[in-house]
Design a protein that fits this description.
The structure holds 2 protein chains of 2 kinds.
Chain A: E1 6-11, H1 16-28, E2 31-37, H2 40-53, E3 58-63, H3 69-82, E4 87-90, E5 94-96, H4 98-103, H5 105-133, E6 137-141, H6 154-173, E7 180-186, H7 192-198, H8 203-220, E8 224-227, H9 230-240, H10 243-246
Parallel strand pairs in A: 1-2, 1-4, 2-3, 4-6, 6-7, 7-8
Chain B: E1 5-7, E2 18-21, E3 30-36, H1 43-50, E4 53-56, E5 72-75, E6 82-86, E7 91-95, H2 100-107, E8 112-113, H3 125-130, H4 138-141, E9 148-154, E10 160-163, H5 169-175, E11 184-191, E12 193-194, E13 199-207, H6 210-220, E14 226-231, E15 241-248, E16 262-263, H7 275-292, E17 294-299, H8 300-304, E18 310-311, E19 322-329, H9 334-348, E20 355-360, E21 375-383, H10 387-402, E22 406-407, H11 417-423, H12 427-430, H13 441-447
Parallel strand pairs in B: 3-5, 4-5, 16-18
Antiparallel strand pairs in B: 2-3, 6-7, 7-11, 8-12, 9-10, 9-11, 13-15, 13-17, 14-15, 14-20, 19-21, 19-22, 20-21
């Protein structure tokens, strides 16, 4: 049984979207799942829930320092050596308040570390191992916020822009191999928080729909996916707005 | 750092300070500070730091119970994890933001089901407890709290109270049906019941008047677990309707219904439910269903939650929203009281086709403020017509009060404090258990704080 189960690794497993994705994968089929987080208590609670939803699955929890390249390397090597990895989802991040980043450079640095540097280190560590195996799908969650810097959140946006550019390069590098690299750019509708509030009654559909789109994009091995899809068009417009107009907008 | 970071990646607008929230009736759109809870270990800190506030699940109560305008709401939607499930005993421990839908979808394929469920499964466990919700099988299984074995109640000062029917029963009795005012319900342990499969065998029988309804209800209680009826609130004389009764049936060869989901895409500029559409719809519904009356096999989702497949059905009442009026009157004067209410309603021509009449069994709610008690309950939607609606409700209140009944707080947005105090006789017993760090629009309206 365990041999035919998919092996799925989720980095930043306590993020809301990652947890929804995990539930979806396990609803489709039992899996051998590795949850990686910064706080073992949080991911153990998530794992307990997933084990109840899918008793046949095997769920492992790992805790690490997300800013330490050596620990990331050791953790990824450990995971990749144990068995072949089919799917890696790199989902962590934290939304900083722009104002705070402007006033407090320590916070600004932390925001850049966790949203930009850390995902790149994880992706790089997995990319090498997956390239050796010549198989698997590596998915990274970026954000539409990375498509153009805006005054309301450009520190976060810059971090996500770095991730986006990095993943483009990685896709180029792995183009001729059996490894698929998926770049995911969610729009701003979907945390339990905002969805619940703005459109009561739609909240559930939205959060689940975003996770469903991500799971589907990973299955198809698409290189770039906006979720929900309308953000592709919206961001195309925003990216191409002439500066004289853009600068007058309050976004 | 904590103050400036929030989990989740997608809200690029940054810090949403005030957000508009409304309850299911959409009567008011009020600004709230919101705190999204995602992990149960963090709840104690968050509520201590941001009190006073109010736990808010799916916002499915109709009036002002789940609102705290200008204040804080603690959103429980992210606390939706199962913690332990014993497949041998059917005992489930979960966080309070878990939806009844998720419990049903987990349990039914394994031979278990919630013993009591309201007419929507899109409510949280915490909300079901705080309102001690009931279902179509009250006469057989009581209300939701009758199946809660244990819960962890977190007070806003950091105290944690473990309570259940036999452990700190006074805290349990205050909290079930307690409108979320005694503390934050963190986790709950629920005893599920065995079920052979997702199917029910249902039977629909038309009735012409209330006398026939009561006769049918009394005759069905012994052999049918679920009984409910749709009542035509507007036909002359009032009181005709369709009586439905059902039992779980054995395994059926039928396939589960396809997940049909439609949604009310927008708020129409006026209520789609009005005296003209209502009269036509009710007559058509009664006559069509009368001809189709008889037995059928129904999936539990179709039987229990017919409206859950219409996302945002509450929008059909237009921008002004709607009231639901649900009351309960003792059986002694039940028939006269219901008749008098239907008479008042049909006189105004207001009301809606969503009108439910049902008898309750002999079990009163364990909760000090719990709604269920022996009697008969009538529930109707009313498009918000401002003063005209309120005048009608006052006449209905008078009938209910005269008959020794009460109004269901989960549905209420407007009863007077005086009527509340007169009809909820255990209020004085309840008040000492309130958490001073919790307040709601309803608690301020009915309890003064």
């Amino acid at each position: 049984m365990s041999r035919i189960m998919q092996r799925i690794v989720i980095i930043g497993a306590s993020s809301a979207i990652a947890e929804k994705c995990a539930r979806l994968w396990l609803r489709q089929a039992p899996a051998d799942m590795v949850l990686v987080g910064r706080n073992i208590h949080k991911i153990e609670a998530i794992a307990a829930d997933l084990r109840i939803r899918s008793p046949e699955s095997s769920i492992t929890c790992l805790e690490t320092d997300f800013n330490d390249p050596l620990k990331i390397r050791a953790l990824v090597d450990g995971i990749a050596s144990a068995a072949r990895v089919d799917i890696v989802l790199i989902a962590h991040g934290a939304l900083p308040q722009q104002q705070c980043c402007q006033q407090d450079l320590v916070l600004c640095r932390e925001a850049l570390d966790i949203n930009a540097i850390s995902p790149v280190l994880f992706a790089e560590a997995f990319a090498g191992r997956m390239e050796e195996a010549n198989a698997g799908t590596l998915a990274v969650i970026s954000s539409v916020a990375g498509d153009r810097g805006r005054k309301s959140n450009y520190v976060y946006g810059a971090a996500k822009g770095l991730v986006t550019r990095y993943v483009q390069g990685l896709q180029h590098r792995l183009a001729g191999t059996g490894v698929k690299v998926v770049l995911i750019k969610p729009g701003p509708t979907d945390t339990p928080m905002t969805a619940q509030l703005k459109q009561q009654g739609k909240a559930l559909a939205d959060a689940d729909a975003v996770a469903a789109s991500i799971v589907k994009a990973i299955r198809q091995g698409r290189s770039l996916v906006y979720v929900p899809a309308r953000w592709r068009l919206i961001m195309m417009v925003i990216r191409h707005l002439p500066e004289c107009i853009f600068k007058r907008m309050d976004i | 750092m904590r103050a400036c970071f929030r989990n989740g990646r997608v809200d690029w607008h940054g810090w949403l300070d005030m957000v508009t929230v409304s309850s299911w009736g959409r009567l008011e759109q009020a600004e709230h500070h919101v705190q999204s809870l995602t992990h149960r270990d963090e709840v104690a800190d968050v509520i201590r730091q941001s009190r006073p506030g109010l736990a808010h699940g799916m916002g499915r109560s109709y009036g002002d119970e789940c609102l705290n305008p200008g204040g804080t709401l603690w959103l429980t939607a992210g606390l939706d994890r199962f913690i332990r499930f014993n497949e041998e005993t059917g005992c489930l421990l979960c966080e309070s933001g878990v939806l009844l839908r998720d419990i049903q979808r987990l349990a039914v394929p394994r031979g278990w089901i919630l013993p009591v469920t309201p007419g929507t499964q899109l409510v949280t466990v915490g909300g079901a407890i705080a309102n001690d919700v009931h279902g179509k099988n009250h006469h057989a299984y009581g209300s939701f709290a009758d199946h809660v074995r244990h819960m962890t109640l977190l007070r806003t000062d950091g105290d944690m109270i473990e309570c259940g029917p036999s452990q700190h029963p006074e805290w349990f009795a205050a909290t079930v049906g307690g409108l979320g005012l005694t503390g934050f319900i963190l986790t709950a342990e629920i005893q599920l019941r065995r079920v052979s499969g997702p199917w029910l065998q249902a039977e629909t029988i038309p009735y012409r008047n209330l006398h026939e309804f009561f006769t049918l209800a009394d005759a069905s209680e012994a052999d049918w677990e679920h009984t409910v009826s749709w009542v035509d609130c507007i036909s002359s004389g009032g009181g005709r309707g369709l009586f439905m009764r059902a039992n779980y049936s054995g395994p059926s060869g039928a396939a589960a219904p396809a997940a049909a989901n439609i949604s009310m895409p927008c708020v129409p500029p006026f209520s789609l439910v009005n005296p003209w559409t209502l009269k036509v719809f009710n007559a058509a519904y009664f006559n069509v269903r009368k001809r189709l009356a008889g037995q059928e096999d129904l999936h539990y989702e179709r039987f229990f939650y017919p409206l859950d497949n219409i996302t945002g059905w509450n929008r059909m009442y237009g921008p002004k929203g709607f009231y639901q009026y649900q009351c309960l009157v003792p059986r002694a004067d039940g028939q006269q009281a219901i008749q008098a209410m239907l008479h008042e309603i049909s006189r105004t021509g207001d009301g809606s086709f969503l009108a439910v009449l049902k008898t309750f069994g002999s079990r009163a709610s364990l909760g000090m403020l719990g709604f269920p008690q022996p009697g008969v309950t009538l529930a109707l939607d009313f498009p918000n017509q401002g003063g005209r609606s309120l005048t009608l409700f006052e006449r209905l209140d008078a009938i209910v009060r005269e008959a020794g009944g009460r109004v269901y707080l989960a549905k209420d947005a407007r009863i007077s404090r005086d009527f509340f105090e007169a009809s909820y006789s255990r209020l004085a017993e309840f008040l000492p258990y309130r958490d001073p760090g919790i307040t709601s629009a309803m608690s301020r309206r009915l309890m003064g704080s």
